[in-house]
Design a protein that fits this description.
Distance between the termini: 39 Å
Low-confidence stretches: 2-23
Order of helices and strands: HEEHEEHEEHHEE
Shape: globular
Strand content: 25-35%
Number of strands: 8
Helix content: 10-25%
Radius of gyration: 17 Å
Protein backbone atom coordinates (compact mmCIF):
# COMPACT_ATOMS: atom_id res chain seq x y z
CA UNK A 1 0.00 0.00 0.00
CA UNK A 2 1.41 3.38 -1.02
CA UNK A 3 1.68 6.34 1.35
CA UNK A 4 -1.18 8.10 -0.46
CA UNK A 5 -3.41 5.05 -0.08
CA UNK A 6 -2.57 4.77 3.65
CA UNK A 7 -3.51 8.40 4.25
CA UNK A 8 -6.72 8.05 2.24
CA UNK A 9 -7.68 4.89 4.13
CA UNK A 10 -7.00 6.58 7.47
CA UNK A 11 -9.06 9.67 6.65
CA UNK A 12 -11.95 7.78 5.04
CA UNK A 13 -12.45 5.02 7.59
CA UNK A 14 -15.67 6.56 8.97
CA UNK A 15 -17.84 7.02 5.89
CA UNK A 16 -21.34 8.42 6.35
CA UNK A 17 -24.02 5.79 5.77
CA UNK A 18 -26.73 7.51 3.75
CA UNK A 19 -28.51 4.36 2.61
CA UNK A 20 -31.75 5.28 4.42
CA UNK A 21 -31.58 9.06 4.78
CA UNK A 22 -31.29 11.88 2.26
CA UNK A 23 -28.04 13.68 3.03
CA UNK A 24 -27.28 17.12 1.62
CA UNK A 25 -23.79 18.56 1.93
CA UNK A 26 -23.86 22.33 2.41
CA UNK A 27 -21.31 25.09 2.24
CA UNK A 28 -23.07 27.08 4.90
CA UNK A 29 -23.50 30.35 2.98
CA UNK A 30 -27.27 30.24 2.75
CA UNK A 31 -28.15 27.19 4.80
CA UNK A 32 -30.56 27.61 7.70
CA UNK A 33 -28.84 27.83 11.08
CA UNK A 34 -30.96 27.08 14.16
CA UNK A 35 -30.94 29.87 16.72
CA UNK A 36 -32.55 28.54 19.88
CA UNK A 37 -32.50 24.74 19.81
CA UNK A 38 -30.48 22.16 21.72
CA UNK A 39 -28.94 24.81 23.96
CA UNK A 40 -28.04 27.21 21.14
CA UNK A 41 -25.34 27.35 18.53
CA UNK A 42 -21.88 25.96 19.32
CA UNK A 43 -19.52 28.76 20.32
CA UNK A 44 -16.23 26.85 20.59
CA UNK A 45 -14.76 23.66 19.13
CA UNK A 46 -15.39 21.99 22.49
CA UNK A 47 -19.12 22.43 21.77
CA UNK A 48 -18.81 20.08 18.76
CA UNK A 49 -19.28 16.53 20.10
CA UNK A 50 -18.93 14.68 16.78
CA UNK A 51 -16.14 14.39 14.25
CA UNK A 52 -16.48 12.62 10.93
CA UNK A 53 -14.59 12.04 7.72
CA UNK A 54 -15.97 10.83 4.44
CA UNK A 55 -15.57 10.70 0.70
CA UNK A 56 -18.43 11.87 -1.51
CA UNK A 57 -18.96 11.55 -5.27
CA UNK A 58 -20.95 14.45 -6.76
CA UNK A 59 -22.16 15.08 -10.27
CA UNK A 60 -21.39 18.53 -11.62
CA UNK A 61 -24.90 19.82 -10.85
CA UNK A 62 -24.93 18.32 -7.33
CA UNK A 63 -21.59 19.96 -6.53
CA UNK A 64 -22.71 23.34 -7.84
CA UNK A 65 -25.96 23.09 -5.86
CA UNK A 66 -24.06 22.28 -2.65
CA UNK A 67 -21.45 24.97 -3.38
CA UNK A 68 -18.68 22.41 -3.46
CA UNK A 69 -15.78 23.84 -5.51
CA UNK A 70 -15.89 22.76 -9.16
CA UNK A 71 -12.47 23.63 -10.51
CA UNK A 72 -11.67 24.51 -14.10
CA UNK A 73 -13.58 23.78 -17.25
CA UNK A 74 -12.40 20.27 -18.04
CA UNK A 75 -14.79 18.04 -19.94
CA UNK A 76 -18.51 18.55 -20.40
CA UNK A 77 -20.91 18.90 -17.47
CA UNK A 78 -22.09 15.30 -18.02
CA UNK A 79 -18.52 13.96 -17.88
CA UNK A 80 -17.47 15.92 -14.80
CA UNK A 81 -17.51 14.44 -11.30
CA UNK A 82 -16.37 16.08 -8.10
CA UNK A 83 -14.86 13.68 -5.58
CA UNK A 84 -14.75 15.35 -2.18
CA UNK A 85 -12.80 14.22 0.88
CA UNK A 86 -14.30 15.89 3.94
CA UNK A 87 -13.21 16.20 7.57
CA UNK A 88 -15.80 17.86 9.79
CA UNK A 89 -16.83 18.42 13.40
CA UNK A 90 -20.40 19.32 14.30
CA UNK A 91 -23.33 19.43 16.68
CA UNK A 92 -26.70 17.99 15.66
CA UNK A 93 -29.93 20.01 15.69
CA UNK A 94 -33.33 18.36 15.17
CA UNK A 95 -36.04 20.24 13.33
CA UNK A 96 -38.93 17.83 12.78
CA UNK A 97 -37.87 15.23 10.23
CA UNK A 98 -34.73 17.22 9.39
CA UNK A 99 -31.40 17.15 11.17
CA UNK A 100 -28.92 20.00 10.72
CA UNK A 101 -25.24 19.43 11.45
CA UNK A 102 -23.62 22.72 12.48
CA UNK A 103 -19.87 23.16 12.92
CA UNK A 104 -16.91 23.36 10.55
CA UNK A 105 -15.69 21.45 7.50
CA UNK A 106 -12.37 20.94 5.72
CA UNK A 107 -12.71 19.63 2.16
CA UNK A 108 -10.48 18.53 -0.67
CA UNK A 109 -12.56 18.71 -3.86
CA UNK A 110 -11.15 17.00 -6.96
CA UNK A 111 -12.89 17.71 -10.27
CA UNK A 112 -12.36 15.06 -12.93
CA UNK A 113 -13.51 14.59 -16.49
CA UNK A 114 -14.56 10.97 -16.77
CA UNK A 115 -15.42 9.64 -20.21
CA UNK A 116 -16.13 6.03 -19.29
CA UNK A 117 -18.54 4.62 -16.73
CA UNK A 118 -16.11 1.98 -15.44
CA UNK A 119 -13.54 4.52 -14.20
CA UNK A 120 -12.57 3.85 -10.59
CA UNK A 121 -13.53 6.87 -8.47
CA UNK A 122 -11.02 6.69 -5.63
CA UNK A 123 -8.74 9.63 -4.94
CA UNK A 124 -5.44 7.65 -4.99
CA UNK A 125 -6.43 6.05 -8.32
CA UNK A 126 -7.47 9.43 -9.76
CA UNK A 127 -4.14 10.99 -8.69
CA UNK A 128 -2.17 8.15 -10.30
CA UNK A 129 -4.31 8.32 -13.47
CA UNK A 130 -3.81 12.09 -13.69
CA UNK A 131 -0.05 11.67 -13.37
CA UNK A 132 -0.15 9.19 -16.27
CA UNK A 133 -2.37 11.63 -18.25
CA UNK A 134 -5.21 9.07 -18.37
CA UNK A 135 -7.69 11.50 -16.86
CA UNK A 136 -7.99 15.26 -16.49
CA UNK A 137 -8.17 16.30 -12.83
CA UNK A 138 -8.00 19.57 -10.92
CA UNK A 139 -8.44 20.19 -7.20
CA UNK A 140 -9.10 22.82 -4.56
CA UNK A 141 -9.16 23.00 -0.76
CA UNK A 142 -12.20 24.45 1.02
CA UNK A 143 -12.32 25.45 4.70
CA UNK A 144 -15.68 26.46 6.18
CA UNK A 145 -16.26 27.85 9.67
CA UNK A 146 -12.57 28.36 10.54
CA UNK A 147 -10.25 31.32 9.94
CA UNK A 148 -6.85 32.50 11.08
CA UNK A 149 -3.15 32.62 10.19
CA UNK A 150 -2.50 28.94 10.96
CA UNK A 151 -5.43 27.93 8.74
CA UNK A 152 -4.07 30.12 5.92
CA UNK A 153 -0.59 28.62 6.35
CA UNK A 154 -1.88 25.03 6.25
CA UNK A 155 -3.85 25.34 3.01
CA UNK A 156 -2.02 23.91 0.02
CA UNK A 157 -2.57 26.00 -3.12
CA UNK A 158 -4.10 24.03 -6.00
CA UNK A 159 -1.69 22.71 -8.59
CA UNK A 160 -1.77 20.01 -11.23
CA UNK A 161 -2.87 16.76 -9.61
CA UNK A 162 -0.42 13.86 -9.37
CA UNK A 163 0.43 11.29 -6.70
CA UNK A 164 2.99 13.50 -4.91
CA UNK A 165 0.63 16.48 -4.78
CA UNK A 166 -2.22 14.27 -3.64
CA UNK A 167 -0.08 13.25 -0.66
CA UNK A 168 0.70 16.95 -0.06
CA UNK A 169 -3.03 17.71 -0.10
CA UNK A 170 -3.67 14.92 2.43
CA UNK A 171 -0.94 16.33 4.65
CA UNK A 172 -2.55 19.75 4.29
CA UNK A 173 -5.84 18.32 5.58
CA UNK A 174 -4.04 16.93 8.64
CA UNK A 175 -2.33 20.29 9.20
CA UNK A 176 -5.71 22.07 8.90
CA UNK A 177 -7.26 19.73 11.48
CA UNK A 178 -4.41 20.58 13.87
CA UNK A 179 -4.66 24.30 13.04
CA UNK A 180 -8.34 24.24 14.00
CA UNK A 181 -7.23 23.99 17.66
CA UNK A 182 -4.60 26.74 17.41
CA UNK A 183 -5.38 29.69 19.75
CA UNK A 184 -5.21 32.11 16.81
CA UNK A 185 -7.97 30.26 14.91
CA UNK A 186 -11.48 31.65 15.11
CA UNK A 187 -14.56 29.44 14.79
CA UNK A 188 -17.79 30.59 13.13
CA UNK A 189 -20.47 27.83 13.16
CA UNK A 190 -22.05 26.99 9.82
CA UNK A 191 -24.51 24.38 8.59
CA UNK A 192 -22.37 21.75 6.86
CA UNK A 193 -24.94 19.00 6.34
CA UNK A 194 -28.70 18.56 6.28
CA UNK A 195 -30.23 15.11 6.72
CA UNK A 196 -33.90 14.56 5.86
CA UNK A 197 -35.23 11.41 7.49
CA UNK A 198 -37.36 9.16 5.30
Amino acid sequence: MTNAEKIAKELTSNLVDSSTDVVEIWSGDDGPVPIETNGGLPQTLDDLPETNSGVYDFSYSEAVSARIPVVGSIGSERERRVITLEWCAFKRFDEGNTELQVGYAIRLAVTIARKTRDFKLSLPFIAASAELKLVEAQWQMQVLGLAGPEIDKAITPPRELNVERYVEAQQSIKALVEAARDPSTTFHPITIRRVTRQ
